Structures are given as structure tokens and as C-alpha cells.
Amino acid sequence: MVHNALQAQRKLKASNDSALVSVKVMDLQDHPILFADLEVTLSPTNTKIKSKTNNKGVAEFLMPRPGNLTYSFIVDYRGDHHSWDRQFKIPQDKGAYDLSVKLKYEPKHVVLYEVAFDPNSAHLKESSDRELRDLLELMSDKPHMQIEILGHTDSIGSIEHNMKLSLERANAIKQYLVDGGIQEHRIKTSGHGPLVPIDTNTTEEGRARNRRIEVKVLKE
Length: 220
What we know:
Elements: E1 2-4, E2 18-26, E3 37-43, E4 47-52, E5 58-64, E6 68-77, E7 80-89, E8 98-104, E9 109-111, H1 129-141, E10 146-152, H2 159-179, E11 187-191, H3 204-210, E12 212-219
Parallel strand pairs: 1-4, 2-8, 10-11
Antiparallel strand pairs: 2-5, 3-4, 3-6, 6-7, 9-12, 10-12
């Protein structure tokens, strides 16, 4: 049996029959993983409940009341699957019950949150250096690792310009790594312009999230 909990459409509330469980999904640096698909399977009933993390990395579920169940969590972020088994007891007493669960993992597809560029440019800001040095160190420590760097923009401007800009920004990251001693064949780049948004383009906050660099691990 499958239930869908679409947070954008309705506000979930705990009740006498169901507990409200909030699940926060983060990477190992405590950055929230946004808009990831999340599925919970309740054992032994095999009930499946689906949701999606919001722009704070949180998904909410209404769980049935019966006491001790094992909850299997599966996160799917851009084809990158991770699973956990958790057991906790939801009280059967009448009344609302809220429970918060945190799931942490290192996805193979990550956003470089601190990498930033000058406006409408592929010139890296100085504030990008720390996170890029971490990526350089990781690839130096793992000589067989191969990655793809994906550039994304918001929807302001023409699609042709944004496609070109997103690729130029991805190539700027590649050049940083090559200048640091990483072999060029280990790094692919692609530019996706505004075609793969992770947030709305109607607000400045949403557009800022959409302007991003992602790194996908192709081989470890």
C-alpha cells in the first residue's frame, strides 16, 4: 500500500490515529539535501509512504499509531539511492505526537554551496576557494576518482546565454582543478542553463538556489 504526502499541497498534522514524523536529510557537512524523493516502508505491514524534502531538506510523514515498527528510509537524490533501517516506538496514547529524525549521508551528487561567481560571469569569487580546495584535496587523495561538473543558472536572460554561461562556469571549476594538478581526463563538464531548477525562479532566494555548481562522482 502506498500513500503520497505532498507537502506543497497540504499541511500535515498529528492526530489520535497518526503521528507526525519530520525527517531531515543532510550531507556529512550538515547541508540540507533539497527536493530529494524519500520513501518510508513500515515493517511488518509493508506500508509505503512517499514524500519529498522541501527547501530546508525536511520531509514530513503521517505514521500510523501501532507501537513498535521498523521504518526503512530510502532517499533518492538524482538517481543516487541510500537506505536506512530505524526502529522507534510511537506511543499509542491519545493525542498528537511529533517525532524528528535526521538522516546523514554523503551523496555521489552534491551541490558546491560555497562556490560563487561574479554576476553574469564565469569569474570565481574568492569565497569559493575553501570549498574548491576541499574538492581538489579529495581528488588528489583518490587518484582514480572521475567526476562531472554540472553548471546551472536561473531563468533570467536568454536560454542560449544561460546555457553558454553555465558551461563556462563548469569549465572554470575544471580549470581550477587542472591547475592544481588533477589530470584533465578525470573531469567532465556540462552546462544545463535554467533547464534543471531545484527551486522557484519567481523569488531572489529561489533564483540564488538555482544558480549552482553540482559535482557528480562518476568513478571512485
